[in-house]
Design goal:
The complex is a heterodimer of chains A (176) and B (304). With 176 residues, chain A is of the alpha+beta class. Chain A has one domain: Trafficking protein particle complex subunit 3 (Muramoyl-pentapeptide Carboxypeptidase, domain 2, 2-Layer Sandwich), CATH 3.30.1380.20. Chain A is 42% helix and 17% strand. The radius of gyration of chain A is 16 Å and the shape is globular. Chain B is 59% helix and 12% strand. In chain B, strands 2-3-1-6-7 form a five-stranded mixed β-sheet, sandwiched between helices. Chain B has a two-stranded antiparallel ribbon with strand order 4-5. In chain B, a hairpin with a 2-residue loop joins strand 4 and strand 5. In chain B, helix 2 runs parallel beside helix 3 and helix 6 crosses helix 7. The longest helix of chain B has 33 residues. Classes of the chains: A alpha+beta (176), B alpha+beta (304). At the A-B interface, strand 1 and strand 2 of A face helix 3 of B.
Chain lengths: 176, 304
């Protein structure tokens, strides 16, 4: 299940396990620092073993897998775009992932600009002039792909680490 | 301190003075000077001047509503401006959403403005709901008979026409009933118009109790009523009509401590292959009603 060799992603929501049953005393919550400890040590090790481009690709793919799975399990499939955004905003907030806001939405051209404030991945990180939310890029791309039933890509254009107080993402249809 | 150092410090001081007095000093030129601490301070002043200039430019653009100005975040104040820029962009999008009718939008993080804006959206939504309610009420008033609450002639004919077309298209059946309260004029003349109104109300209330939700009752004229019974054949319609006739014949309406009895004559028909429109169906039901009247009233006659 977890340690089998594979050439494509096999993540399944059931891999998260029965947390309530498994952690009767500690419960389902942990801290942002623990999440980041995992994310950034993982990134560190991947870069050390491969390179930055590979690390970015891995985080993007993992984000896509997470976004697709979250859409299937936590969001409703039958809504229009406004309903989708409203539900996504509420879900991301309830899960303390971030405060999602829309700056532009062009349903005709399928182009969107979103911001995420108080982002789980990066808000409060040291300034580094780097756009670090690669996992978020894949995550957002997958959510939009699942909603529209077409392949989207997401690109981070501003990040806490580049001096912004919000992360900004451009979401567009993937080139075929 | 040497004279040239004092001179350099004077230039830095003059530069900072200009900056503090809202002037725009040029780049502090310390080239050719020795690379010492004073020179480094000069470089910091140049960097600060450049950052302040960018900040001023960004603040100016934001103040006039230009939200697309790129803000280069070299000073902490720029971070706050970028945050404000993001908030204003989202607010612009939200305003567009509200204009499209999405009243779920709420503004956060803009203090007192958020409260006022959100209150405005709530008020707009309340007004919209009120107008929608009024429109529904107007629609109801325009489509129903004010005395009995059943469909008026215009709405009944619209429904009947739609049912005719639907049945034709999908090869379905329906039946139509025409009813006329017997000697209604006499009720009015004997007991007064108020009594006549009570009779009409009692009549429709009793009819509605017998009808299914899909059946439609309309008041066509003074004491004339029509019914469309979707998915009902002639035999079924005759059972319904006879039940009406009996219910009305047994009915007692109390008006000013007097009991008013009345009866109803009924014509029944169903959709035929050669019917060219709803008018043909209703005309046939009307002819059956005429036969019921001429046959002594308080009768059901079929034109099947």
């Amino acid at each position: 299940m977890f340690k089998e060799e594979r050439k494509s992603l096999r993540f399944d929501w059931s891999h998260l396990g029965n947390i309530e049953w498994g952690r009767p005393n500690l419960g389902p919550q942990t801290t942002v620092a623990v999440y980041r400890l995992m994310q950034f040590t993982l990134r560190d090790a991947i870069i050390a073993h491969t390179d930055v481009a590979t690390a970015n690709r891995i985080f993007y793919d993992a984000g896509q897998s997470a976004g697709k799975s979250m859409y299937e399990h936590l969001l409703h499939d039958t809504q229009d775009f406004d309903g989708f955004i409203a539900e996504l905003q509420e879900t991301l907030r309830n899960l303390s992932i971030g405060i999602l806001r829309v700056e532009a939405s062009d349903l005709l051209m399928h182009r969107f600009v979103l911001t995420v404030a108080e982002d789980l991945d990066c808000s409060g990180l040291p300034m580094s002039e780097e756009l670090v939310c690669t996992f978020d890029e894949g995550f957002i791309a997958a959510l939009f792909s699942a909603h529209f039933g077409r392949q989207f890509t997401a690109r981070e254009t501003d990040c806490w680490c580049t001096g912004d107080r919000v992360c900004r993402f451009e979401v567009v249809l993937a080139k075929t | 301190m040497e004279h040239k150092d004092i001179e350099r410090l004077d230039r830095i001081s003059a530069h900072l003075h200009a900056l503090l007095h809202n002037e725009q000093p040029g780049v502090l030129d310390l080239t050719g000077q020795q690379e010492d601490e004073i020179c480094q301070v000069g470089e910091f002043v140049n960097t600060l001047t450049e950052a302040l200039s960018a900040l001023t430019n960004a603040a100016h653009h934001l103040s006039i509503g230009d939200m697309d100005v790129p803000i280069i975040a070299k000073l902490p104040a720029c971070h706050h401006l970028k945050n404000l820029q993001a908030t204003l962009r989202h607010l612009t999008w939200q305003t567009g959403q509200i204009a499209k009718g999405d009243f779920s939008q709420r503004v956060e993080f803009l203090g007192e403005f958020s409260h006022s804006f959100n209150w405005m959206v709530e008020q707009l939504e309340a007004y919209r709901q009120r107008i929608l309610g009024q429109n529904r009420e107007l629609e109801r008033l325009a489509s129903t008979d004010s005395l009995t609450g059943v469909y008026n002639r215009r709405s009944f004919m619209a429904f009947a026409t739609k049912e005719f077309l639907r049945s034709r298209r999908y090869s379905h059946i329906f039946s139509a009933i025409q009813m006329d309260i017997d000697h209604f004029k006499k009720i009015n003349d004997t007991h007064g118009h108020a009594a006549g109104d009570e009779v009409l109300k009692a009549f429709t209330a009793n009819c509605l109790e017998v009808l299914r939700e899909s059946d439609v009752l309309g008041r066509i004229g003074g004491e004339e009523f029509s019914i469309i019974l979707p998915e009902t054949d002639l035999a079924g319609a005759l059972i319904v009509a006879e039940r009406f006739r009996q219910t009305i014949a047994d009915l007692k309406v109390y008006v000013d401590e007097q009991i008013v009895h009345f009866t109803v004559s009924i014509g029944v028909t169903n959709l035929r292959q050669d019917d060219t429109g709803i008018e043909a169906v209703l005309r046939r039901a009307d002819e059956a009603l005429y036969l019921a009247k001429n046959g002594g009233r308080n009768k059901v006659v079929s034109a099947g």
